[in-house]
Description:
CATH class of the largest domain: Mainly Beta
Helix content: under 10%
Oligomer: single chain
Number of domains: 2
Radius of gyration: 18 Å
Amino acid sequence: MYRLTRARRIPITAAVIRVALPGAMVALMLSSCGGAGTEPSRVPAGVPAGVPAGVPAGALARALGRAAASGTTVLAIVRQDAPRYGVPGGLALGVVPASWYDRPSVLPVIATRPGWVQVRLAQRPNQSTAWLPAKDVTLGSTPYRIVVNLATTHLTLYDSGRLVFSAPAGVGVPADPTPTGEFFVAFDEQPPQPNPGYGPFIMVTSAHSPGITDWEGSGDAVIGIHGPLGKGRVIGTTGARISHGCIRLQEQALERLRGIPPGTPVDITG
């Protein structure tokens, strides 16, 4: 297991996320688990900007439709702690925090209504969603999508719907499985020092272990994507079931995920 550290709040910068405004695409605790192709074609760029005043009511829905057609995902960057709703205009059910472990909340948008966005959440239970007032978020986008196939024990990266590379992966053993579902990249975390094989960084996802709920008193067990933890030979070229839920990659494959922005979808299939 790996104890996730809190970090100084990191602002979203031009190197992190592309702006996606209506009308134009201008753009814990980790469960210890734990290719060929071209490099990612680009790192998303562009400073997020607020949704401009006077946007037509259907503009958000049209932007979401255009994003889906182009293989990109619209993102919502939560400006400040925002009330969450089960349905637009209903009773507030709690708060979506502007940061999670001191990293900005950058959440995939999955639906819209006039003045509202529905987003995926990073917190338990897995695949939680909420409706947020559009005024409480800034819009961005990511062209990337990560797919982890547990049946083939491979991780695949897509850019605007085009396959970038696929690599063998170590995934959860039957007793501590990697959860299936639609998740996303929450943030990147520096590995502990000394580094026992986590690789150059750890990609923290919104997935949580279905079987481990409180690792070493941490209160959670979050699924990460990281290095092989000394099991590179076991992962080999075909992948293996070797982790407690996390997704392990050879370090060269992990390095090729560097620069993938928070909010990028991570689909885990059985």
